[in-house]
Amino acid sequence: MQREVVRDLFGVESELISVAHELKTPLCLIRQLAFSLRNDLSEREMMKIAEQISVTSERALRMVNELTKVARLEDALFDLEPVNPKRICEQAVKELEGYFAMNHRKLNVRYSNNFKLVVANPELLASIVYNLCGNAMYYSEKDTPSEMFVKSVDFGHKVRIGVRDFGPSLPMNIYRHLKTGFLKAPTSIAMRPGSSGLGLYIVSRFAKYMHGRVGATRHDDGTTLFVDLLASNQRSLF
């Protein structure tokens, strides 16, 4: 029993270190941007820095809010219902426009004609889409497009929401974890420096809560990360 407690404590400590590392990145950027305001800048340069601070702080706050949601999953407070994934994706794209533009990235969207509504919680699904898109933005090369897609899979029984990026390929250890459909804890991602995999961990927890699974496809020039969710019997009218 004592060994199990020690192992659990080390596991919690490891997760906290990973979370702290992920939150440190936007906070350091905000501090750096704030210091730059002390310089003699033009009005245009100051407005640009202010926008960067706003976008970065919103990202950090969203991350904290999503971690709070993860802690509340066991309370079963997030009801599942038929949700239009296209609508959720469009909202996420709109929210991320400034973030992508600030980092000189592009996001294209492709919807199949035959996808259905999904059984999901709108709030959790929005977080999944946001994290998948943010992950692609972070790892894509400058001025390269990422592509988000929605399509039916498994003979129409499921709907796949995925994002393709053009960055370093996903390491095999993370890929093997995702083959099980779930990432148990934030895990540092080699070849993709600066990430603890916190976004993927959040996606995994939310997908599992909604009876879905996370998956990945490795490419020579990047990675596709996706979530498969149960299709609703109610067909999409959009």
Architecture overview:
The chain is α+β, with helices and mostly antiparallel strands. The protein has 2 domains: 72 residues, Helix Hairpins, CATH 1.10.287; 153 residues, 2-Layer Sandwich (Heat Shock Protein 90), CATH 3.30.565.10. 51% of the residues lie in helices and 19% in strands. The protein contains 6 helices and 7 strands. The protein has a 5-stranded mixed β-sheet with strand order 2-4-5-7-6. A two-stranded antiparallel sheet has the order 1-3. Strand 6 and strand 7 form a beta hairpin. Helix 2 packs across helix 6. The N terminus is likely disordered.
**Strand order within the widest sheet?**
2-4-5-7-6
| Gyration radius, rounded | 19 Å
CATH class descriptor of the largest domain: Alpha Beta
| Large-scale geometry | globular
CATH-assigned fold name of the largest domain: Heat Shock Protein 90
Give helix and strand order, one letter per element, not per position: HHEHEEHEEHHEE
Q: Indicate the percent of residues in helices.
A: 40-55%
Profile the largest sheet.
5 strands, mixed
Which strand-content bin applies to the residues? 15-25%
CATH architecture designation of the largest domain: 2-Layer Sandwich
Number of strands: 7
The helix tally amounts to 6
| Count of separate structural domains | 2
Which residues sit in consecutive blocks of at least 5 with pLDDT less than 50? 1-13, 192-196
Overall pLDDT metric? 80
Within CATH, the superfamily of the largest domain carries the name: Histidine kinase-like ATPase, C-terminal domain
CA distance, first residue to last residue:
54 Å
Kindly name the structural category.
alpha+beta
